[in-house]
Amino acid sequence: MANARTTGEAAAAVPCEEIQALLFDYMAHELGDKQSLLVRGHLLHCEECRREAARMERTVAKLRGDRTVIPPEHLKSAARRRIERVILHPFLDFVYVHRHVVAAILALAIVSLLAFIAGKYSKAGPEGRPLWLGPNPVRETDPQLPQTP
Amino acid sequence: MPGAKDRLDSLRSLVDEYEGALLRYVSRLMGSASYAEDVVQNTFLKFTRKWRKPFEVSPDASRWLYRVARNEALDHMRAESRRRRLHAEHGGEAMAQPTMPSAAPSDKARSASDALGRLSDRERELVVLKVYEEKSYKEIAEITGLSVGNVGYILHNAMRKLAAILGGDD
Fold this sequence. Notes:
A: mainly alpha; 67% helix; B: mainly alpha; Rna Polymerase Sigma Factor, Chain: A; 7 helices; 0% strand
């Protein structure tokens, strides 16, 4: 009994600033036994710290009671399907994740194919002229070959 | 090595277990429920692609999910704030801002979420984890990468600010 009174008196002697710094930790059950006892003992004797503790409690209650933001309880089924697709269709998911790289590789492949086709047909012309441009037109400035008898 | 069906079943249980908590956490963190679903979906997508251990409800998985959800939410908020700033610079000042961190603490907040919006990202995150998700300081430290002492210190300051903003009186 005397020991409890001594502890209470010691707690009452602790400066209020120190106790108020511990109030939220005390309310959140994050203090060890010794510190909890100190805060509890101080609160029994100190009106000002009790008021501060009540203010903190009201603040927490206001935060918890706020209904301005109402979070959804579940993901929509489309979102769940999208998540499950990672397991069900890993290849498609890989392509989707690396879509920029895949698109770049595809574009490069198409350009290479076109260049290859263009190169192949350009070599087929008799005078080095691409086939798709048609026969070489005769220009007036071309030198005339001498007529052979 | 479990088959696709087993993995799918485990993933479904895991989503069932954490989706509500993550949606609450992200909505409170962002001050709006509008983008919470996108953020949580991306979190689970990353989890499914990157988690190398079995899909089980565990403290490790929980920590991982909260951490990734937090990063996704903060990235989203930064992108949104950049977009708003650009919009304002180009003559669209009329756009509404959902959170208002610059307001003076003495102004009466309309609601608790307004008050939360006036805290820094870090303070808001810790308050949401402690007050709404009821995580211990140790769990919060693991999610945020802060020390336990730092968590207590930041929370103490954040709660004092909130008490000042919300008045604390009925």
